[in-house]
């Protein structure tokens, strides 16, 4: 199992940037696909980006392509989400998740972080 803790959320103006980080601990970190998910009020949790161990499989939700970048530092057990050109519709609680499959649907995630809030003002 793996334990996950997110950080880096906050309030930013539209067009600005934030970088989220997910720190992982526990056994078998390298066996997981890592993903970033988000959930806005009144909406279901959705996959934003995913990254397997080697980087041979990387996924982005269509609406964030060209704006967000997921990266994984296996030596430090960290996963990052660089978010540029943020839009108000990006406002949500962002969660780090660990899964066995690629791409990982929310129902297939084995471990979740507690989330970090991102608020984008207009």
Topology:
Elements: E1 2-7, E2 10-13, E3 18-26, E4 33-39, E5 46-51, E6 58-60, E7 68-73, E8 78-83, E9 92-99, E10 109-112, E11 116-121
Parallel strand pairs: 2-11
Antiparallel strand pairs: 1-3, 3-8, 4-5, 4-9, 5-6, 7-8, 9-10, 9-11
In short:
The chain is mainly β and 122 residues long. The chain contains no helices and 11 strands. Helices cover 0% and strands 53% of the residues.
What does this structure look like?
The chain is mainly β. It has strands at 2-7, 10-13, 18-26, 33-39, 46-51, 58-60, 68-73, 78-83, 92-99, 109-112, 116-121. The chain is globular. The mean pLDDT is 94.
Radius of gyration: 13 Å
Assess the beta-strand content as a share of residues: over 45%
What is the multimeric organization of the chains shown?
single chain
Question: What is the 3D form?
Answer: globular
Number of strands: 11
Low-confidence stretches at least 5 residues in length (pLDDT < 50)? Answer: none
Portion of residues in helices?
under 10%
> What is the H/E string?
EEEEEEEEEEE
* Alpha-carbon distance between the two ends: 40 Å
Number of helices: 0
Question: What would you call the structural class?
Answer: mainly beta
Query: What value does the average pLDDT take?
Result: 94
Query: How is the main sheet built?
Result: 7 strands, mixed
